[in-house]
User: What shape does this take?
Amino acid sequence: MLYSMTGFGDAQLEEDGFSFLVEIRSLNNRFLKISVKLPELAAFAEPEVTRIIREELNRGSVNYTLHLKQTSESAAMEVNQAALEKYISSLAQTYQLRGSNSWMKVDLGSMLLLPGVCQPRRLSEEENVHLLEKIRDITRQALGNLQAMRAEEGKSLAADLLFQCRVIRDNLQALSALTDLVLDTYRQRIQDRVNAMLAEANLKLDEEQLMKEVALFAERCDINEEASRLACHLDQFETICRGEQAEQVGRRLDFMTQEMLREANTIASKANDARISQHVVEIKVAIDRLKEQIQNVE
Assistant: This one.
C-alpha cells in the first residue's frame, strides 16, 4: 500500500480537568521534518511527541499543534503575593514623594495584569506524568486519522502510477512489433536505391554485401536489451505499488523511474525511425508523470 505525504489528522479529548485538541498536517518533503507547537504547560512533552511521530512516519514536512485548556477550578492562576506587595510598596512611595495633594487611584484588576503578579499553577510530578500519558494517547489517535487520510490518497496515487505503467508497457509492445518492420524497410530502401544506381551502369547487386549492411544497421539500432530492462523495471515498479507498505517506498520508486528514464533515453538515441521515436516520446512523457506523482509518495 502506498501512503501520500499530504494529509491532515486531528483528535479531541476532554478528561480529568483538561481539554485536548491535537492537529497534525503533513506536506511533501524529501526527508522527515517535524515542527511541534506545545503550550507552555506541556512543553516538557516535546521529545516524546517527536519520538511518536518518528515511529509512524518516514517522510514529509509534519506540523504538530497541541491546544490544551484546563477546565477545572485548578486552572485559576496563582497570585504572586511578593510581586504584588512590591508593586503596592512602590506606588505608596510614589504617593508620599508627590505629597498628600496628589491624586492617585489604584485598580486591583489592573495590578493583576502587571508582569509577574499572576502566574499559572505549576503541575506536580504526578500530574505531569498523567498529562504526558494523555498527550501520548491523543497524539497516536491523531496520527491514526492522519494515516487513514494519507492511505486514501495513496490509493489514488497508486491507481495513476499503475495507469502510467500500462501506457509505458503498451508503447514497449508497439516498439517490439516495429523493430523487424523497420529492418525490412531499411533493407528494401537500400536495395531499391542501389538497384536504381546500378541499373544505369548495367551492374548486378551483391546480395552478400547488402546483408552485411543491413546486419550492421540492425546491430546499431537493436533496442531489445534496453526494452527488456525497461520491462523488468516496470515489473518491479508495479510490484512495489501493489505490495504491502515497506520502508522508503517513495525513494525506491524514485530510483526505479530514474532507471526507466535511462533505458528510454538509450532507446531514443538508437531510434532511426519516426514511428519508434513517437513511441519513445510517449514512454518518456509517462515516466515524467511517474516522477511527478512519486514526489508525493512517502
